[in-house]
Design brief:
Layout: H1 6-53, H2 60-70, H3 75-99, H4 106-144, H5 147-153, H6 158-193, H7 201-210, H8 214-240, H9 247-278
Length: about 280
């Protein structure tokens, strides 16, 4: 029998190892290319939204219809969510304040917590689940059934009619929904304070808004517009760029909720840091 050359073994091992390294390098390169491609697509999508916003033929009728769909149709859910927020926050906070004899600080604490942080963030997350998924599913189904292609063929601009109207409706209506949720949160807090106490409606509201300053409201309102922009852009982007299969509708709706919720939390973190530096 012939003996195998050990040099050949080493060379063969080195060749296999170099092949594995090249495969790993190619995989990393493909991931980087896909990330950069997706990033460029998002940038072009945002540029197109900005360009179509200031076009002459803005679809005001569709814009108001989307405002109705996003705002009015979400009022029952936001009402329940805001009331429960204030009720739970009051019930959880009252025993701690009773120990320190600071029950009179409860309305102001709840009002500041709702207006600054809890109201905007929780309402935006609820809207990301309801509105973002609705946009992703609706535009995704239109993409699958080739309705968007039919609009392009019939010389109708789908970006202006479908995307721009939904994005601006979300930017306008979500801050209003957040203020609406804050109001119901304070009402729920009053109801929670009366479970183990007896506080009049007028006294509770005077104590609540006596601790709230103008600068507590402005940063919350400003960041709520960014929440609306994030939810609208993500929902429309995922739906508008959905695949051709029927399962892509569910994928678009699911990814829109996940990404919009994540970006809402990131935007809130950035807004809190900026507010802390300015104030």
């Amino acid at each position: 029998m012939k003996k195998l050359n050990p040099v050949v073994k080493v060379k063969g091992f080195a060749t296999k190892q170099s092949v594995r390294l090249s495969e790993k390098t190619m995989a990393k390169t493909a991931i980087a290319n896909n990330f950069l491609t997706d990033l460029s697509d998002v940038f072009l999508f945002l540029v197109q939204i900005f360009r179509e916003t200031f076009s002459r033929n803005f679809e005001f009728k569709e814009f108001f219809r989307q405002c109705f769909q996003i705002g009015y149709k979400s009022l029952p859910l936001i009402s329940i969510t805001g009331t429960i927020m204030g009720l739970v926050l009051t019930i959880q906070s009252r025993p701690v304040l009773v120990k320190f004899g600071a029950v009179t600080m409860l309305p102001g604490m709840v009002a500041i917590s709702l207006i600054r942080e809890m109201g905007p963030v929780i309402t935006a997350l609820i809207c990301a689940g309801k509105i973002g998924s609705g946009m992703g599913a609706e535009l995704g189904s239109m993409k699958v059934t080739e309705q968007i292609d039919a609009m392009e063929v019939s010389s109708t601009n789908p970006m202006r009619f479908l995307v721009v109207t939904r994005v601006w409706a979300a930017i306008i209506m979500i801050p209003i929904l957040i203020l609406y949720a804050d109001t119901f949160g304070i009402i729920g807090s009053w109801a929670g304070a009366n479970i183990k106490g007896d506080v009049s409606f007028v006294l509770f509201f005077s104590q609540a808004f006596g601790q709230v300053h103008f600068m507590d409201l402005i940063p919350a309102v400003i960041k709520s517009f960014f929440f609306g922009a994030v939810i609208g852009c993500v929902g429309c982007y995922k739906g508008y760029n959905a695949g051709r299969g029927t399962e892509s509708v569910g994928v678009a709706a699911n990814s829109a909720v996940v990404l919009a919720s994540l970006l809402v939390i990131i935007v809130d973190m950035i807004a809190v840091q900026i507010t802390d530096m300015l104030l």
